[in-house]
């Protein structure tokens, strides 16, 4: 009623005089519209009551400004001033949201690049021992550890939904409980996957690898078991910290582990000549360095609000957690395996040596650049989950828009860069003219892949932040394995396009998936999603203190 009283006491403004109305901070990074001017035309008592109701409703809905019909009486200059004021406010909101986003994305890019480099360094030291040693370590890292990495990482992404929404809803205690539930689920899954390491030799033989390489890879795979269990312990810790804007801790731990990894490889492999076993154990040790550093930070006071020690609450509501984790694992694994299949199909082509070399170079370039979209995937998931957990659907929508726009701009830059340097990008890896020409022909597909990868992970991040994992898993199956993969095989067989045909078809599947996710995101009812997030928190929270 205070607003009504003040409105009734206003004097009728003279012609052409403006009255400044200061708005109320809105959701999604909104703030005060101190620069917006509105003309108040002569009004009677009943109209003031309507204005008061509009103002009250707009305040309840988190609107950024009060709307008076006097706006319609503005002259052209005043309308321009209002547009400028609104544009400035939009720019300010985007800066605020971008800052929140890059707090997550910046350290995530560094962390993912470092962990990617750990495998590259491992294979480099193995390569100095011999070609057979390099092949065996590559099989163990890429096939076995890569398969388990994708599955466990996907299952851990359930925490991006739950911890992100819990943080936004200020249910800090439940974040530690969710992490413990994730540890339980991932360790059980890791135990179920353990036989893969014991039967690695037979698996490699079934994929058509040579007997010598398969035998050595089978022996060395046993020494990667500590690495396997580090995934189950580390991934929940990383997402737990990421969801509370402490991603810099992940980056510091990864940087320390990189230095340790280089040193122990030099010491035990190059200096002391301990051989291939030292290569495998060095990689496992480096991943455990990251894990133990993060756990020490959490356990010894780094997260006083969200970590209250181990709790029996972790064993409550496990089935709901398992379902969300399984959907997350399937969703990300289908994406992770998709382009690995491309390499396998290329290996079965006639005269495939040059094609495989060229494709491997393209995949290495794509893999390095992919660290950026994957960081945006993480950042988008956290920001959307935070806003939905806080009940701010408009804020979640705005976060998705800012993240998508930023990621596409970065992807467009790298797409143009690859297009301009199409005949030079492979010089870093080889001097073979045949391979250089093959990479040149594939560069247009590489540029399209990079551009699509700047959009698709962000939309997947929106899905993770909103808890749509099971829906996206079905979309991935249809787009990747019903549309993309068969289309690629048909282009290769019918049009005799070779690896370009397979890759083009698979890009088509990714494009269809991206389009579907974009339509779902655009048509999303964000206020309803905020209500669903609140209901999910109530259902999964077994906190007796609430």
From TrEMBL:
<feature type="transmembrane region" description="Helical">
    <location>
        <begin position="137"/>
        <end position="162"/>
    </location>
</feature>
<dbReference type="InterPro" id="IPR045069">
    <property type="entry name" value="MATE_euk"/>
</dbReference>
<feature type="transmembrane region" description="Helical">
    <location>
        <begin position="101"/>
        <end position="125"/>
    </location>
</feature>
<dbReference type="InterPro" id="IPR002528">
    <property type="entry name" value="MATE_fam"/>
</dbReference>
<comment type="similarity">
    <text>Belongs to the multi antimicrobial extrusion (MATE) (TC 2.A.66.1) family.</text>
</comment>
<keyword id="KW-0472">Membrane</keyword>
<keyword id="KW-1133">Transmembrane helix</keyword>
<feature type="transmembrane region" description="Helical">
    <location>
        <begin position="472"/>
        <end position="490"/>
    </location>
</feature>
<keyword id="KW-0812">Transmembrane</keyword>
<feature type="transmembrane region" description="Helical">
    <location>
        <begin position="183"/>
        <end position="200"/>
    </location>
</feature>
<feature type="transmembrane region" description="Helical">
    <location>
        <begin position="398"/>
        <end position="422"/>
    </location>
</feature>
<dbReference type="GO" id="GO:0042910">
    <property type="term" value="F:xenobiotic transmembrane transporter activity"/>
</dbReference>
<protein>
    <recommendedName>
        <fullName>Protein DETOXIFICATION</fullName>
    </recommendedName>
</protein>
<feature type="transmembrane region" description="Helical">
    <location>
        <begin position="442"/>
        <end position="465"/>
    </location>
</feature>
<feature type="transmembrane region" description="Helical">
    <location>
        <begin position="502"/>
        <end position="522"/>
    </location>
</feature>
<feature type="transmembrane region" description="Helical">
    <location>
        <begin position="274"/>
        <end position="300"/>
    </location>
</feature>
<dbReference type="GO" id="GO:0016020">
    <property type="term" value="C:membrane"/>
</dbReference>
<feature type="transmembrane region" description="Helical">
    <location>
        <begin position="249"/>
        <end position="268"/>
    </location>
</feature>
<feature type="transmembrane region" description="Helical">
    <location>
        <begin position="220"/>
        <end position="237"/>
    </location>
</feature>
<feature type="region of interest" description="Disordered">
    <location>
        <begin position="1"/>
        <end position="23"/>
    </location>
</feature>
<dbReference type="GO" id="GO:1990961">
    <property type="term" value="P:xenobiotic detoxification by transmembrane export across the plasma membrane"/>
</dbReference>
<dbReference type="GO" id="GO:0015297">
    <property type="term" value="F:antiporter activity"/>
</dbReference>
<dbReference type="Pfam" id="PF01554">
    <property type="entry name" value="MatE"/>
</dbReference>
């Amino acid at each position: 009623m205070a607003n009504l009283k003040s409105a009734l006491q206003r004097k009728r403004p003279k012609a052409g005089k403006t009255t400044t109305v200061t708005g109320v901070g809105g959701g999604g990074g909104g703030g005060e519209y101190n620069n917006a001017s509105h003309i108040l035309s002569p009004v009677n008592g009943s109209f003031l009551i309507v204005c008061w109701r509009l103002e009250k409703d707009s305040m309840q809905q988190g609107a950024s400004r009060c709307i008076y019909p006097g706006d319609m009486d503005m002259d052209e200059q005043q309308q321009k001033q209002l547009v400028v004021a609104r544009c400035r406010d939009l720019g300010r909101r985007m800066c605020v949201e971008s800052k929140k986003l890059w707090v997550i994305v910046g350290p995530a890019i560094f962390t993912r690049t470092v962990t990617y480099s750990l495998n590259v360094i491992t294979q480099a030291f193995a390569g100095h021992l011999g070609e057979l040693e390099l092949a065996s370590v590559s099989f163990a890292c890429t096939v076995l550890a890569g398969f388990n990495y994708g599955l466990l990482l996907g299952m851990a992404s359930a925490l991006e939904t739950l911890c992100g929404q819990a943080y936004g809803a200020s249910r800090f205690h439940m974040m530690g409980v969710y992490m413990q539930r994730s540890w339980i689920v991932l360790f059980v899954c890791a135990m179920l996957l353990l036989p893969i390491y014991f039967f690695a030799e037979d698996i490699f033989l079934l994929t058509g690898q040579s007997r010598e390489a398969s035998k050595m890879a089978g022996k060395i795979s046993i020494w990667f078991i500590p690495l396997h269990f580090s995934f189950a312990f580390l991934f929940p810790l990383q997402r737990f910290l990421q969801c509370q804007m402490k991603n810099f801790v992940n980056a510091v731990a990864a940087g320390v582990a990189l230095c340790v990894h280089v040193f122990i490889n030099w010491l035990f492999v190059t200096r002391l000549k301990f051989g291939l076993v030292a290569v495998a154990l060095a990689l496992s040790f480096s991943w455990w360095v990251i894990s133990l550093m993060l756990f020490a930070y959490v356990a010894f006071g780094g997260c006083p609000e969200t970590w209250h020690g181990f709790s029996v609450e972790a064993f409550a509501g496990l089935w709901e957690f398992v379902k969300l984790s399984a959907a997350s694992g399937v969703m990300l694994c289908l994406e992770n395996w998709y382009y690995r299949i491309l390499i396998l199909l290329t290996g079965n082509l006639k005269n495939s040596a040059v094609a495989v070399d060229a494709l491997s170079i393209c995949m290495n370039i794509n893999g390095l650049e992919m660290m950026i979209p994957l960081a945006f995937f993480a950042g988008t998931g956290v920001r959307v989950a935070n806003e939905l957990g806080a009940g701010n659907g408009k804020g979640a929508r705005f976060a998705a828009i800012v993240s998508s726009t930023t990621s596409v701009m970065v992807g467009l830059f790298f797409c143009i860069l690859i297009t301009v340097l199409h005949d030079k990008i492979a010089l870093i890896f080889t001097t073979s003219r045949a391979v250089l020409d093959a990479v040149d022909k594939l560069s247009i597909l590489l540029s399209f892949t990079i551009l699509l990868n700047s959009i698709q992970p962000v939309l997947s991040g929106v899905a993770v932040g909103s808890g749509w994992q099971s829906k996206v898993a079905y979309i991935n199956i249809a787009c990747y394995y019903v549309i993309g993969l068969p289309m690629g095989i048909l282009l290769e067989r019918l049009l005799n396009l070779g690896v370009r045909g397979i890759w083009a078809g698979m890009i088509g599947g990714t494009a269809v998936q991206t389009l579907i996710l974009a339509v779902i995101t655009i048509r999303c009812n964000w206020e309803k999603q905020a209500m669903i997030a609140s209901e999910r928190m109530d259902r999964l929270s077994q906190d007796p203190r609430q």
